[in-house]
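Practice problem: predict the structure.
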Amino acid sequence: MRTINPLASLFGKSPFGPLRDHMKLVLECAALMVPLFEALAAGDKEKVEETKRKIFELEKVADEIKNEIRVNLHRRLFLPVDRGDLLQLLKTQDSIADRVQDVAALLVMGKLSIPESQTESLMSYVNLNLEATRQCADIISQLDDLLEVGFRGKTVERVEEMIRKLSNIETTIDHVGLELTSAFLLDESEPLTVSKLLWLDVIRKLGNIADKAENVGDSMRLLIAR
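Answer:
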């Protein structure tokens, strides 16, 4: 696992370096959902457990970075944006990794296996939520450019368009999630078992990933507005 030093740029020319580093780690964590579900579909329990372990490790590092930023952010004499807004942005993007961890834990503890009829739909849903997280990371990567132009002009317009795209992705995910939920509920090949109920919870938690990503976009919109 690569090591990120969250404090390396904390006192540099940009106050946003640690936030970017944290979001990169969150995206790395979210990207592991794909091999996690692929291993589950293949019935590879060892790979599922290994991937779940990696997710938990990355989430822990993300928490450590989050805590370091919280402790040290108040030491800056000057910030170009409200300190509270930055901390809220940090909390929101960290919650994405939390939801990924929740999904991994539920899959393993519930000893779930993907119904063959739902494999393609579930993988599409996973990738859509990953796309939302990538879009979220792309938005966070614009922080230095926004700082350079004083949160004005064409850079702001570009970021606002990226936020709108993220919102559209999240809307699509909502629709797909509802369709997937209905497909599981209407599947008469299996009664309403504990396994099916757990899958419905997995679908809900996956959708929460996109919700949190959209919340990051909303937090960025607030930074820009102020």
